[in-house]
Amino acid sequence: MRVADLMAGSLVTIGHDATVGDAWSIMQRRQVRHLPVLDADRRLIGMLTDHDLRLVILERCVREEPGQVSRTLAG
């Protein structure tokens, strides 16, 4: 089996200026665990994982006041 055979569907990417909430929403909606991050010229500049997001969200939520989770995800 070739790698190309395993990659069914279109590639899901995210822009470098997207928010944490945007990334989380895309991952949940498209059911992916990794997002290639593209710059303004659509060049690959990194890879974002669901693990990265979980760490960032947890860290921010621990520092925030109770009830501020939605604002944390938006920023």
Textual characterization of the structure:
- A 3-stranded mixed beta sheet has the order 1-2-3.
- With 75 residues, it is of the alpha+beta class.
- Strand 1 (14-15), helix 2 (20-30) and strand 2 form a beta-alpha-beta unit.
- 47% of the residues lie in helices and 17% in strands.
- The mean pLDDT is 83.
- The protein contains 4 helices and 3 strands.
Q: Specify the structural class.
A: alpha+beta
Distance between the termini: 42 Å
For the biggest β-sheet, the strand order reads 1-2-3
For the sheet with most strands, the description reads: 3 strands, mixed
As a percent range, the share of helical residues equals 40-55%
Q: Strand content of the residues, in percent? A: 15-25%
User: How many E-type strands?
Assistant: 3
Output the number of helix runs: 4
Secondary-structure map with pairings?
Layout: H1 3-6, E1 14-15, H2 20-30, E2 34-38, E3 44-49, H3 50-63, H4 69-74
Parallel strand pairs: 1-2
Antiparallel strand pairs: 2-3
Summary tags:
3 strands; alpha+beta; 75 residues; 3-stranded mixed sheet; 4 helices
Can you give me a brief rundown of this structure?
This protein is of the alpha+beta class and 75 residues long.
